[in-house]
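user: can you give me the structure for this one chain? tokens are fine.
assistant: on it. calling the predictor now.
[tool input]
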Amino acid sequence: MTDTDTNIKELLRQVKRIELRTRQAMNDLTAGAYKSRFRGQGMEFEEVREYTPGDDIRHIDWNVTARVKKPFIKVFREERELNLMMLVDCSGSMQFGALPGLSPRTKMAAAAEAAAVIGITAMQNKDKIGLVGFSDHTHIHLPAKRGRNHVMRMIRDILDTSNDPNTSRHATDISHALDELRRVMRKRSVCFLISDFMNPEIGFPLALRQAARKHDIIGLRLSDPSESHLPKGSAPLVLQDPESNETLCLANNGKARRRYRQTWEQQREETERTFRKAGCELVDLETTGNIVTTLQRFFTSRRRAVK
């Protein structure tokens, strides 16, 4: 058996483990919470017809009415079919985690599990779902489709990309992914933007606001607890940027640790402000946390918000 065959078999085992673990944990996840918030929120234009008494005058098509000298109204039908898209960050910083005694998995593995939760929920509701895996360019683009095979392929492709050493050396360009979303998704869609949002590029706030004008965008922010602080010690610390491979040597003292912590908090606050100004929600997911439970709470809160 070749190394390639071994890698493929291990990848398939990972996909199966994620599916089984996610399905078991989702036994108590109410699909109605997901449905009631996302489904049927949009209206699609169908036709115009002549006005009849009792019609809602707010739907009068004034252009047609002026042309034919009779009142005509626009007829809409509710959009029953929901399109979802997942934009998954596959850059180098997403490989952080799986530290012995500190975190059980990488941020990329947690992202794959979050994608599984969303994908399986969409599958249960017979909704279409697509995938864009990105770093500073697009690595994966799967158009929105239905079905278990499609969802399993999405999970497999995310894991496959995360295991590719060439991908892990790429930087992050979230604006590129959002621009692609606007280009390929013509209908209003629900988009889950899955990333650690580490050092987002300057154009990210504008790209998010522009995409949010058409789409319902939810950020899922991945983090690992060990990122929030420097380890205590006396020896100098050498830190390496996982995307640029640049290194930085820091004195390991109280002042350096406080400065690091302050910078980390400021960066997270800036990301939160960016989402808030764009009118989008941001959900925090940790490598040490329960992904299914966190998303369940999110779906439930969205359901309550529209009651």
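assistant: here you go. The beta strands are 43-50, 72-78, 83-89, 128-134, 138-145, 190-195, 216-223, 237-240, 247-250, 281-286. The chain has nine helices and ten strands.
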